[in-house]
C-alpha cells in the first residue's frame, strides 16, 4: 500500500488555498485503491505563530469540520490531532539530533524572518523563536512517524518535505533503515493559489477567501479581487490574472479553455468575477451545508479525533518509537 499523509496548521480559518492545495488532492488520493491515508490537525505547529489558546481551539474545530465536510471518512482514513499523538514530539527530538543546522538555516520561513530583520537593520534573529527555526523538524516527525510515501501539499511546503527526506536519510545512515523517504505531491495547476491581492493566498497576508464563507460573503470577496484596469472589450492577459488562476483551480480543462478565450475576447472584469464566483460556489455549496451541520456538534468531532489518535498511536506511533528508542540506545518503555 501507498501511505498518503498531510496536515493543516490550526492557526486560523481554512481557506481556498488549503482546499485546492491540500484537502482536495489528499481526499482524491485517499479514494484510490491500495492507499492508506493520514490526515491531521497540526496544532503543535500553530503555537509557532499563535499565542491565543482560544484561537488554536477554534481553528482545530473548524479545520476538523472542514475535512469531514469535504468527504473525509474517519472509518477509512486515520484522522487525528497532532498533539494527541505525543510520540510526534519525541521523534522530533531524535530527528533534531541528526538534523543539520546549516540546512535549517536555509528553511524559507526562517530565512524570510532573517531577511525582514536585515532590512529593518535589526539583529538577524531578532524576534525569531527556536520554534520557528525548528518548524521543519517537527513537520518531518509528522511525516516519518507514519513512514508516509506521498505528501500532497501546495508548493510552499515542498522544501520541508525535502528536508524530511534529508533527516530520514541521515537517521537511516546512522541507525539502520527505519524510515521511508517521503515525496511531495504538488498539483501544478494550483501549486500556489493567489489571494485577493494577487500574492499567495495565506493567513499571514490577510488576503484569504474562507472556504466556507456564506454565499453572500463569498460573492463580495470575489468581487473584491484586485485586477488591472483594462476596460470591457480590451483583451486581457489570462495567465497573469488572479481571477483566471482561481477559476482554473475550480474548472475542467474545457471550461478553462473557454474562459481563456473570453479573456482574449475582452470579457469585462465584472462578468469574469461573476463566472468565477458561480464556479466556486457550485463546487463548495454542498460541502458548506455539511460544514454548518458538523460545526454545530463539536463534541462529536472531538470524540472522533480522540478515537482516531488512540487507534493510530496503538497501530503505528507507539511501536515505532519503541523500535527507535532501542535503535538509538534509550531504555525500552514497553
Ligand atoms: P498550512 O496550514 O500553511 O497549509 C495547509 C496546506 O495548504 C496548502 N496551501 C496552499 N496551497 C496552494 N495555494 C495556497 N495559496 C496555499 N496556502 C496553503 C499548503 O501548502 C499546505 O499543504 N506546515 C504545514 C502543515 C503541516 C504538514 C505536516 C503538511 C504540518 N505537518 C506534514 C504536510 C505534512 C502548514 O503550515 O500548512
TrEMBL record:
Keywords: Aminoacyl-tRNA synthetase, ATP-binding, Cytoplasm, Ligase, Nucleotide-binding, Protein biosynthesis
One Gene Ontology term of the molecular function aspect: ligase activity
Function in brief: Catalyzes the attachment of tryptophan to tRNA(Trp).
Assembly mode: Homodimer.
Residues reported to bind ATP: 9-11, 17-18, 154-156, 193, 200-204
E.C. number: 6.1.1.2
Short motif 'HIGH' region, span: 10-18
Compartment(s): Cytoplasm
Coiled coil: none
Name this polypeptide is given: Tryptophan--tRNA ligase
Primary localization: cytoplasm
Enzyme class at the top of the EC tree: ligase
Domain of life: Bacteria
Residues of the full protein shown: 2 to 335 of 441
UniProt record similarity statement: Belongs to the class-I aminoacyl-tRNA synthetase family.
Reactions the enzyme catalyzes: tRNA(Trp) + L-tryptophan + ATP = L-tryptophyl-tRNA(Trp) + AMP + diphosphate + H(+)
Binding residues annotated for L-tryptophan, in chain numbering: 142
Keyword Transmembrane found: no
Annotated motif 'KMSKS' region, positions: 200-204
